[in-house]
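Weekly sync, protein design subgroup
Attendees: M.S., D.O., the rotation student, P.L. (late)

Item 1: inverse folding check
M.S. brought a backbone from last month's batch and wanted to see whether the design step gives back something sensible before we order anything. D.O. pointed out we never logged the input encoding, so this time it goes straight into the notes. Structure tokens as presented (197 positions):
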């Protein structure tokens, strides 16, 4: 019995360690691409990578209305269509600039976002693994952020019970993010249907 328990603990540690390493790769890639990321932007990346678009709620019409408004306001231009945001590749970001450039159907994409909204189990533990990975990258000097400030930010979000994050003004001004998060499964099965043949 004791041996079985020890084996289970070892497996958990190994899987947790590998997950942390995978998170480090995802976060490091984003820090390199978006060097002006602030603690809240890192948290948002991890939050979306774990929870997907579930924080948008389950009202399809609301999802559609917000998406139509944003698509209308942005300029169309070519870019990478998808961006990885999770080590398990469960969720990804769809670039709305390129979606509009390719003539994507807003209603179809709204349905994919809606289909991707689901409750995630053990989300806090998964987010904590990502946040620890981010902290180690910052401590190692892989970003322009101060490690102590990041730790203080983590204390704040934990006290607030992991609230829904919004990009920092610095990030928005520098990168004008416009995307929607959908699940990889939904993307592979339905995304091509968003475009005219």
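Designed sequence read out in the meeting:
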């Amino acid at each position: 019995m004791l041996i079985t328990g020890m084996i289970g603990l070892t497996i958990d540690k190994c899987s947790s360690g590998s997950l942390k390493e995978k998170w480090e790769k995802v976060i490091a890639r984003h820090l390199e691409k978006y060097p002006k990321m602030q603690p809240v932007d890192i948290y948002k990346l991890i939050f979306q990578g774990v929870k997907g678009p579930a924080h948008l709620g389950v009202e399809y019409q609301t999802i559609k209305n917000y998406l139509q408004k944003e698509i209308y306001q942005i300029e169309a231009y070519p870019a990478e269509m998808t961006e990885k945001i999770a080590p398990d590749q469960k969720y990804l970001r769809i670039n709305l600039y390129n979606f509009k450039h390719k003539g994507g159907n807003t209603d179809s994409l709204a349905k994919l976002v809606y289909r991707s909204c689901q409750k995630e189990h053990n989300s806090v533990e998964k987010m904590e693994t990502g946040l620890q990975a981010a902290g180690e990258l910052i401590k190692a000097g892989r970003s322009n952020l101060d490690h102590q400030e990041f730790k203080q930010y983590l204390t704040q979000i934990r006290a607030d019970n992991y609230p829904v994050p919004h990009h920092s003004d610095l990030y928005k001004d520098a990168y004008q993010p416009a995307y929607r998060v959908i699940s990889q499964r939904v993307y592979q099965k339905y995304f091509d249907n968003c475009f005219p043949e």
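Discussion: The chain has one domain: 16-186. Residues 16-186 form one domain.
Action: P.L. to compare against the previous round before Friday.
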